[in-house]
């Protein structure tokens, strides 16, 4: 947000989660507006836009939560994920009311075009000065904090345990881990996620028990800190401690942990589908079987054997400086400053020109609500 504001655009934020009944003033003079009465904020987003006289409203959210009627009340610029193939009709129906959609993956851009839309492309960006490779000493320190020994092979999953079936493929990943750990008892799978089914996800402790995976082969993040937020450097330490990030998802709109891990020099195992394919700079892609989801489009259930084979390859190549270098080099294209200058700046300039030409509201782009 501050980077976009520094381009000359006045910004406000609509927080559709975690804030109610008050407006907050945060850094750089940016205001944060609260949620209304509906879960996704569809009942209040137009009022917020009118209140701040927003020239455009950029939503970083699933598009399907809005109706065409709501979206037609302001210049809607959905900055959206596409994690199905093709674009679901339910999403297409709403996007017909969009003023200018923006995809944050090349896969998403292609699917939007196939659906007859004219998207722009702006990828997500990461802080590469935060997510960066470390020294051998830093790696040892990171492992000590996670209570993991220097000689242990570590795979990590940084993924939300939310929804059924599991889009992040927890059952498939754990099945493969059971077989892998039986071959390599000196291994541990770190799960940075909520363990229980409270968010309609998988009961992971139950699944682990049913698979008879040894307790010492699994570690969960601290549940309290997972709810309130870990310290800034914690995720970097997770990636430094890991030999591979395991992310064989059924579909991804982007997949920030994939890029964050590689920025730290950690190779990845990803599903060979949706946005994941374009984000694997160093690692292994897992093929999958098409799965028709309730939204009326395909995602991809990863091959159990392919996950296992990829883990074996990661075990064989752990400590590879070649993979670490490739991972870092690929991730640098997604540096937040690079993304701002290369993508956000020209896209917002184009939108500003179109707003000005329309002579609606103010003559220049005055405010945006995210």
From TrEMBL:
Keywords associated with the record: Transferase
Domain Glycosyl transferase family positions: 231-278
Family annotation (SUPFAM superfamilies): UDP-Glycosyltransferase/glycogen phosphorylase (SSF53756)
A Pfam family hit: Glycos_transf_1
GO MF annotation list: glycosyltransferase activity
Record's protein name: Putative glycosyltransferase
The organism's taxonomic lineage, starting at the top: unclassified sequences, metagenomes, organismal metagenomes
